[in-house]
Specification:
Number of strands: 0
Shape: globular
CATH class: Mainly Alpha
Strand content: under 5%
CATH architecture: Orthogonal Bundle
Distance between the termini: 24 Å
Number of helices: 5
Helix content: 55-70%
CATH topology: 434 Repressor (Amino-terminal Domain)
Oligomer: single chain
Largest sheet: none
């Protein structure tokens, strides 16, 4: 079984912990940057990965994977 997509892992943890996009700003950056990451328009940087791993407990192995572009059927 493959590890989950990093964006899906972030969204899942947000839902688990009742976090908003605003709560991710200290971990990812500006509101625009958070939106770009969650919309798969920007990849996570090493710093973002470290902060997400340290503060949200998401596995670094999951976060370093490339995000899968959602396909529209």
């Amino acid at each position: 079984m493959e590890p989950p997509d990093p964006v899906e892992a972030i969204k899942f943890r947000m839902e688990q912990q009742g976090l908003s996009r605003k709560d991710l700003e200290p971990l990812i950056g500006t509101r625009t940057r958070v939106a770009e990451v969650l919309n798969r328009k920007r990849n996570l940087s090493i710093g973002m990965i470290r902060r997400l791993h340290d503060r949200l407990g998401i596995s670094a192995e999951v976060l370093i994977r490339p995000s899968q572009k959602e396909t529209v059927a």
